[in-house]
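User: I'm preparing a small set of examples for a lab meeting where we compare how different chains pack in three dimensions. I only have the primary sequence for this one, and I'd like the structure in token form so I can line it up with the others. Please keep the answer compact; I'll paste it straight into my notes.
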Amino acid sequence: MGGQAWASDDELAQLRRSFRLADLAPLAASAGITGTVVIQTVAEPWETPDLLALAAGRDPYQAEEKPRGSAEPDGAQPAPTSGLLAAVVGWTDLTSPAVADAVAGLRELPGGEFLCGIRHPVLAEADPGWLSRPAVLRGLQALAQTGLSFDIVALPHQLPAAVTAARSVPGLTMVLDHLGGPPVGAGQDVEDGPWAAAIRRLAALPNVTCKLSGAHTTPTDASDLEPYCQAVLAAFGPDRLMFGSDWPVSTLAASYGQVLDMYQNLTAQLSPAEQDAIFDRTARRVYRLPAA
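Assistant: Understood. Below is the structure token output for the 292-residue chain.
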């Protein structure tokens, strides 16, 4: 997994270990989070079935069970994980002519009812126009027919193709992850640069929402992100924004609670109803989760 544009090899090395639902549970409980959506990380067919099984209550990554009645090392019982994983955004090959069949196959697996969307790591594609390729557009059209959403994780120079894809498949709900990779600290004009232009074009399409996440991968604080958050807030509005922790990648810069606090501070000027949209209702609507 070396050579990623969003992280150095040294940073990636810190993530090469097991992060389990049991690790997330106490962090989420402490932050008042009662449900979360897990997002794919690799473009490999084995991962999504594992994530679905995890959502269904079977941890495929747990090598061995603890003896019955055992406690955590400090004597405290582990935080409960049941119900925490509310849905899965998985992966399938969008260039395949059998996207609908692949989705149907995933839905038949244990935990298949938790599948709410598909994502492809576009940021790893060398072609900036990958999302607008005819084969990919056909795959996205097929995905729209399944009722699932599509998460876009891309770099700013790839966003024009995302605009083409969103415009070409208006029946597909799309989620722009990580604010579209804003050029934090790059000295670019927040209002007139290419990132801002792409954000406005995406926000003009009603089938696109945006996720407040991921821009905190490198150490930063609320003041660094504020102009970018204000830009997406002005473009999309609270009802088309949702919070994402990007855990565990976010641990490269801050704890789970610190990330949540930062985005809550960045949206503190909004009304309670608007904040509720960003931190709850938008995700429930887009990913078709049960009401609270």
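A couple of notes for your slides: Confidence is low (pLDDT under 50) at residues 64-73. The longest strand covers residues 85-90.

User: Perfect, thanks.
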